[in-house]
């Protein structure tokens, strides 16, 4: 748990689990606790005095199948918003789209079965400039279909405005730099903020 998420102590109103691969983990960043996507979202939450804790559950290199094997480790913890970011490595490893869909759906099912009232955000992938369109095109339907089938908020392309731009990525050309992640955090914040506000409103109604 980061220092920023500890400040609320027992007054926390909820927990957000970011579950993904290197794009969640913050691969290659100098300071993951400050520069990774979950950390940047925690900073935005803190700036608006929302008593929510963000957990970074990213593991670099994971595929959707790896995530399916790992999700059970978190189901004995309570969280209120689930942010799912997996699938990029499936594309690189030529995992068939129907298996990616199957694995991600199984993850979603496990989370919903454990937390029936949870809110969920799906971070999808589209067609970055550095991947052939014919290779990734089938995958973007995976994310749109999953979001529709499971009533999830969807960010269609997590790397929008960052992919393919050398000054916003590390030297490998694939992973965002700290500046790139700031753009990504700004892009996804409006959707995530609405989920947070919905959770806090429901919590207040329950308390009243």
Explain what this protein looks like in three dimensions.
The protein has 9 helices and 5 strands. By secondary structure, the chain is α/β, with parallel strands linked by helices. Mean pLDDT is 91; it is low at 1-10. It has helices spanning 3-6, 22-25, 32-35, 37-47, 64-70, 88-92, 97-114, 133-150, 178-207, and strands spanning 14-20, 52-58, 81-85, 119-123, 153-155. The chain starts with a helix and ends with a helix.
Helix and strand sequence: HEHHHEHEHHEHEH
Total number of helices: 9
| Averaged pLDDT | 91
Largest sheet: 5 strands, parallel
Strand-residue fraction? 5-15%
What is the second-level CATH architecture?
3-Layer(aba) Sandwich
Query: What number of structural domains do the residues give?
Result: 1
Biggest sheet: strand arrangement: 2-1-3-4-5
Number of strands: 5
CATH class type = Alpha Beta
Distance between the termini: 30 Å
CATH superfamily: SGNH hydrolase
Radius of gyration: 16 Å
Tell me, briefly, the overall form: globular
Class based on secondary structure composition and strand pairing: alpha/beta
CATH topology: Rossmann fold
Query: Which stretches are low in confidence, meaning pLDDT under 50 for 5 or more residues running?
Result: 1-10
Helix content: 40-55%
Quick overview of this protein structure:
By secondary structure, the chain is α/β, with parallel strands linked by helices.
Q: How would you summarize the topology of this molecule?
A:
Layout: H1 3-6, E1 14-20, H2 22-25, H3 32-35, H4 37-47, E2 52-58, H5 64-70, E3 81-85, H6 88-92, H7 97-114, E4 119-123, H8 133-150, E5 153-155, H9 178-207
Parallel strand pairs: 1-2, 1-3, 3-4, 4-5
Helix pairs in contact: 4-9, 5-7, 7-8
């Amino acid at each position: 748990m980061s220092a920023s998420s500890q400040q609320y102590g027992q007054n926390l109103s909820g927990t957000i689990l970011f579950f993904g691969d290197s794009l969640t983990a913050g691969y290659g960043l100098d300071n993951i606790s400050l520069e990774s996507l979950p950390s940047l979202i925690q900073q935005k939450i803190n700036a608006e005095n929302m008593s929510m804790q963000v957990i970074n559950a990213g593991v670099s290199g994971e595929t959707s199948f790896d995530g399916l094997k790992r999700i059970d480790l978190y189901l004995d913890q309570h969280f209120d918003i689930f942010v799912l970011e997996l699938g990029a490595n499936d594309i690189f490893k030529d995992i068939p789209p129907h298996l990616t869909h199957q694995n991600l759906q199984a993850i979603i099912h496990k989370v919903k079965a454990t937390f029936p009232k949870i809110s969920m955000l799906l971070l999808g992938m589209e067609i970055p400039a550095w991947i052939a369109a014919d290779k990734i095109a089938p995958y973007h339907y995976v994310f749109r279909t999953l979001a529709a089938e499971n009533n999830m908020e969807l960010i269609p392309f997590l790397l929008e405005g960052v992919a393919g731009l050398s000054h916003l990525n590390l030297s490998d050309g694939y992973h965002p730099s700290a500046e790139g992640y700031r753009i990504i955090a700004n892009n996804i914040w409006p959707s995530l903020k609405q989920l947070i506000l919905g959770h806090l409103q429901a919590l207040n109604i329950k308390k009243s």
